[in-house]
Structure formats: structure tokens, C-alpha cells
Design a protein that fits this description.
2 strands; mainly alpha; 4 helices; single chain
């Protein structure tokens, strides 16, 4: 039992505390394997399989749009061949392939096929809504790709500046 005085009048207050053994010290956690380029590529392949296996139930333009998205996501992951993926790119790709794209497609696939062309109170049909969502995902994926490519360009420019400074004549040379 732990005793302490309260802040107002010095009255003793008892706090009961149970002794809890401290957990054994563990090694530092390993980085999430789901964040590795190989794991992201495997997730992209899995989403492509899902798209292909449901191609007969999805509108053709949705299949094309979904595959364009996975192609852009693969391009983002491929930038890791040059430099490690930025944390934001990793989070974006992982979210897109493990949640956003599959959830969008599964939600559409759950709609009765007789209702996919029926306009809803929102003013959109489920097919139109699907295409709008896929367009948003594609736009987001392109923005991440452009950011990853800009990072590569910035790195190239920085390297060029370094090399010019390192190997060109200096004002201090006699």
C-alpha cells in the first residue's frame, strides 16, 4: 500500500498498488515485414489476382482503372531500387493495396448485380461511384509517384552539386 498526502489539507490517502512483475526485456522490434518492398510487391500481386478473378463481375473500365492503380503502385515500390522508400510512400502503398483498393472493389462486388446501374439518392449509380473512387485512388497514387520521383531528382541534383564542389577547382587552390 502506498500512502500519500493530498494537496489540500494533508489528509493521508491510501493508494493500493499490486506488485506487477516487470516484463522481460525484449530485443528491439524488427521492422514491419509488411513495409518491405518485397512484401509490398507481394500485396500488389495479390490485389491483381483479386482484380483478375473478379474481372467478369466488375465493369471493364473499373478493371482497367484498378490495374492502372496497381501499375502506379508498383512503380512507386520500384523506386526503392534506387533509394529506400520514403515513409509516406510506404504508408500510401501499403494502405492502397491492403485496404483502400480491395475494400473499394469488395464493396462494389457486394452490390446486387441488378442494382449496379440504378441511380441512388446521391445521384450516382454504384458503377459511377466505383469509378469516382478508383479515379481518386489513381490520382493519389500518381501524386505519391511524382513525389518519389521528385525525391530522386532532388537527390541527383544534390549529388551533382556535391561532385562539382568536391572535384572542381577551389578558390583556395594555389
Amino acid at each position: 500500500m502506498l500512502w500519500r498526502q493530498d494537496e489540500e489539507g494533508g489528509k493521508a490517502v491510501a493508494w493500493f498498488r499490486r506488485a506487477v512483475p516487470s516484463p522481460p526485456t525484449a530485443a528491439a522490434p524488427a521492422p514491419d515485414a509488411g513495409d518491405s518492398p518485397e512484401a509490398l510487391r507481394a500485396s500488389i500481386v495479390a490485389v491483381n489476382r483479386m482484380i483478375n478473378s473478379n474481372a467478369g463481375r466488375l465493369p471493364l473500365r473499373a478493371v482497367v482503372a484498378a490495374r492502372r492503380i496497381t501499375d502506379v503502385l508498383a512503380e512507386i515500390v520500384n523506386t526503392s531500387d534506387v533509394r529506400p522508400l520514403d515513409v509516406y510512400a510506404t504508408i500510401s502503398v501499403r494502405g492502397a493495396v491492403n485496404d483502400y483498393l480491395p475494400t473499394t472493389l469488395r464493396t462494389f462486388l457486394a452490390v446486387d448485380k441488378d442494382l449496379v446501374a440504378v441511380q441512388r439518392p446521391s445521384g450516382f449509380t454504384p458503377t459511377e461511384s466505383l469509378m469516382e473512387q478508383l479515379d481518386a485512388l489513381e490520382g493519389s497514387a500518381f501524386a505519391v509517384l511524382q513525389a518519389a520521383q521528385a525525391q530522386d531528382v532532388d537527390a541527383l541534383m544534390t549529388q551533382g552539386s556535391f561532385l562539382r564542389t568536391k572535384f572542381s577547382g577551389s578558390d583556395l587552390d594555389l
